[in-house]
Amino acid sequence: MVSVKFLKEETYLTGFEIEGHANTKTRSKVTEDKIVCSAVSMLAQSTLYGIGDVLRYPVKYEVRSGYVKCDISNLIEKEIINCQVLLKTMETTINKLLEEENYRIYIRLLN
């Protein structure tokens, strides 16, 4: 199970934390669990690249197998506001994945 938590301060998203893997049951073909795991991973990486490489903000992050954390709470308010498009797009995409009956069994959204 992939657990996703969005970090919030007041009215702004200030990051996210993702932990776990979709439980792969077969290694012989592409399965829904691999698709979900890959989609969530790429979404997290894209958001990190957008903040760090495109906007060039000093984002605090940690990445290791089965874990990604992004924290922008150290940024000034204007920079946090500029990151909202990326973070809210990520949040919307995670929620869209959760709407898919076949995918929601692999993702848990934490408060």
In short:
The mean pLDDT is 91. The chain has helices at residues 32-54, 77-99; strands spanning 2-9, 12-19, 60-64, 67-71, 107-110.
Quick one: how many beta strands? 5
Spans of at least 5 consecutive residues whose pLDDT stays below 50 are none
The helix content, as a percent range, equals 40-55%
How many whole angstroms does the radius of gyration measure? 14 Å
For the termini, the CA-CA separation is 16 Å
Report on this model:
The chain is an alpha+beta fold and 111 residues long. It contains 2 helices and 5 strands; from the N terminus they run ββαββαβ. Helix 1 packs antiparallel against helix 2. The mean pLDDT is 91.
